[in-house]
Amino acid sequence: MSETLDLTEVLGRLLRAEKILLLCHKNPDGDTLGSAAALYHALKRLGKPEVAVLCADLIPPRYDYMQIELFQGQFEPQYVVAVDVASIQLFGDSVREYAQRVDLCIDHHGSNSGYADALYLDSSACATAEIIYQLICKMGVEIDGVLADCLYTGISTDTGCFLFGNTSARSHEIAARLMEAGARVRDLNMILFETKSRARLAIESIALSNLEYHFQDRCALIYMTWEQIESTGVETSDLEGLTSLPRQIEGVQVGITLRQQPSGSYKISVRTQPGVDACAICTRLGGGGHSMAAGCELVGGLDNAKQAILAEVERELCRES
Amino acid sequence: MSETLDLTEVLGRLLRAEKILLLCHKNPDGDTLGSAAALYHALKRLGKPEVAVLCADLIPPRYDYMQIELFQGQFEPQYVVAVDVASIQLFGDSVREYAQRVDLCIDHHGSNSGYADALYLDSSACATAEIIYQLICKMGVEIDGVLADCLYTGISTDTGCFLFGNTSARSHEIAARLMEAGARVRDLNMILFETKSRARLAIESIALSNLEYHFQDRCALIYMTWEQIESTGVETSDLEGLTSLPRQIEGVQVGITLRQQPSGSYKISVRTQPGVDACAICTRLGGGGHSMAAGCELVGGLDNAKQAILAEVERELCRES
Predict the structure, then answer these.
(1) Count of CB atoms within 10 A of residue A154's CB?
(2) CATH topology for B3-193?
(3) Contact B124/A at CB under 8 A
(4) In whole angstroms, what is the distance from residue B177 CA to residue B170 CA?
(5) What tens digit of pLDDT does each residue of A75-113 get?
(6) What CATH topology corresponds to B198-320?
(7) What is the DSSP string of A151-182?
(8) Could you say which of A110, A206, B118, B176 would form a disulfide bridge with A169 (CB–CB 3.0 to 4.6 Å)?
(9) Model pTM greater than 0.95?
(10) Does the beta carbon of A209 lie under 8 angstroms from any beta carbon of chain B?
């Protein structure tokens, strides 16, 4: 397991370090990138000549405003820092060389596996960027527009623009400070939250046209066949977002999403309102999860999968009412 | 025109007033209701025995948590206060009796027509609830959970959950204070932002199935016939939300929404990215608006309306590129 540090110790180690490599997780999101970018800029501001960011996957061009310097072998890393990476599997194969020698990990995932030599973990933080904000304040580095943009990106994306349950008073407090420091929130919100891919919209259209209501409208169900998914070219991350859709409908207590896999089986996501146990529904079909979000996978055709999941939903709704 | 007050004068008048009637605008939203409810609770807390809220339309049951006391003739109003109502037409006919004798209006709309005897206007506030928050702080009334819920509702709904361009550092700052005071932000966000009506989803499905791309995908267009709109029973407020959809698509510079009216004509909304002038497009068709959001109405069938608007979009895109 990792040695556990407090924030002052984290700062001390970073101040002593040279030739610093900052590692992000694969399929990078706004928080891992915003955290790495903010830390990169702050360390440069402290006068470190050699700092760079490495990620196994390409960084989507919409994040160009972060002005990240990517690692391309321009120095021999002496100190490796992972940000927002909960386990070693999440680095991706192409950066394995460095993933196995992480000196320091800064993270907000309670599930962090402790793979790094030293760990700073705050699971009450809404995003790793919230921790990086505190660290940069402690450094005495002034937060300018670019730093503010990077940190706002991490906090806003991990909270779904201050919508999700992890949003805290501190999230809003920091957002206020970042706006005062010059974060271009209007432009960033447009880029981060008001842009959908054509593929996402196409699969959403298909899913909505396959919307069914069951059990006096207490259950809503959408499904997508593999052929439909493939025809849109949609990315997996876009598909994940769809699972919240059926439960959002007024009066619906159980929202079901069936997504056919290339193998033909159906991956099923169950989202419930408080009082209906999603985990109980899925566990009886060999899956599992949390009380309001669970999943399972069923072989056989669409009708079989539907029948099986609806039977368990009915059982749970009867128990509940 | 109204006499212009500062916040201290507003407070003085409210402290002297008795038998206070609080007026909301028709088709009430989270801000007019949250502002009225918060002011109602604060005035009660100051020991005013007779305060009540009046709105021309029914208050949607999802706002029940505000615990608003409605005016039903239980006292003879001596002081009438309008919150978040920019012009006298917005009260609705059934409350005309009081709308014509408003003593004080508290508002954040720069377009306020000055119909009240006295006006407190702060167009830099993201919501009227932001002003009410400042007023309640000035009163010295402690903000408890219910008050915090009401004020959070106003601020979060008018900013689209801190997404829209009117979101300021002050919006986030106040949200932080309200969470500390006990606002049940997780539950409220679920009610306010994660719940869609069946009708809204049905019309969204229809609109998406009618999605067209034009001019090398720089323009996206959706349309809804009156028959389709009527078949879903969707409310006008839900329809307004759809107009932002086509512009949200990656790479799209002009998003067009055509909505047939009961008369058969088409109401057209144009939303653009910076650099493309929505107002220029609509002005040439007899409409108008702002540089990134404009509208017009065209008689004749769907094909005519489409042809006319697309011709103007093409002209504007050619000018731009």
Answers:
(1) 31
(2) inorganic pyrophosphatase (n-terminal core) (3.90.1640)
(3) no
(4) 11
(5) 999 999 999 999 999 999 999 999 999 999 999 998 899
(6) Diaminopimelate Epimerase; Chain A, domain 1 (3.10.310)
(7) HHHHHHHHTTTTTSTT--HHHHHHHHHHHHTT
(8) B176
(9) no
(10) yes
